[in-house]
Write a structure and sequence with these properties.
There is one protein chain. It is built from one helix and eleven strands. With about 200 residues, the protein is mainly beta. It has two domains: about 90 residues, no CATH class; about 70 residues, no CATH class. The strands form three sheets. Strands 4-3-6-10-7 form a five-stranded mixed beta sheet, with no helix packed on it. Strands 1-5-2 form a three-stranded mixed beta sheet, with no helix packed on it. A hairpin with a 2-residue loop joins strand 8 and strand 9. It is globular and about 45 Å long. It starts with 10 loop residues before the first helix and ends in a 10-residue tail after the last strand. About 20% of the residues are buried.
């Protein structure tokens, strides 16, 4: 902590020095509170970050590591909003896609839609690799088609051999490749710290 002590000999110089030191601590910016989930909608745009889509509803999100829950800063991401489907079994293509890199607080750009953006209607994952081809493996429940969170995955093919844990929507990262190739994903559960041989 700095303490400013004025003297009779140079009150003006020291006062200016104190003001200069304090100016680095006092700002009007609002601190960024960490999200509890990568799918927690924050309904305000972030200055300097990209926007996509149209509509009265909008969100930006904060990308978290699926295992450690740490904020993923300066990380490539893909943020996609699905077209609302009439039934769980129907196809749900992307309505809007926003790709970018999270900022120093792990925040994405701002994406808009004509309907409320809920976790079930979106995908927000980190991007691994580069190229025009890609796949984000997902594990779904056979009963209702919803994603299975917290399952271990093992991705192979297309030059990848990676393991991790699915996010809240049952998704693995988006793995990109420079050419068409076959990406394989296996999902499994670990018990008492023991995982099946992959």
């Amino acid at each position: 902590m700095f303490k400013c002590l004025a003297t009779k000999s140079a009150p003006i110089v020291i006062t200016l020095l104190c003001a200069h030191m304090l100016s680095g601590c006092i700002t009007n910016t609002v601190p960024v509170v960490a999200s509890a989930s990568s799918y927690e909608c924050r309904p305000t745009p972030v200055d300097g970050l990209p926007t996509a889509g149209e509509g009265a509803y909008g969100c930006h999100f904060q990308l978290l590591d699926t295992e450690t829950k740490e904020i993923l800063v300066n990380t490539p991401y893909s943020l996609d909003v699905y077209t609302p489907s009439k039934s769980a079994a129907s196809e749900t293509p992307f309505l809007t896609t926003l790709k970018g890199v999270t900022d120093a607080h792990g925040r994405s750009g701002f994406i808009r839609a004509s309907f409320p953006i809920t976790p079930e209607r979106m995908r927000f994952v980190r991007v691994v690799g580069s190229g025009p081809y890609g796949r984000s493996p997902r594990l779904l429940r056979p009963t209702d088609g919803s994603g299975v969170a917290g399952m271990h995955y093992h991705v192979t093919g297309c030059g990848y051999d990676q393991t991790g844990i699915t996010d809240e929507q049952g998704l693995a990262p988006l793995f990109l490749s420079v050419s068409e190739c076959k990406l394989k994903a296996a999902f499994y559960m670990c018990r008492n710290g023991k995982c099946p041989t992959k």
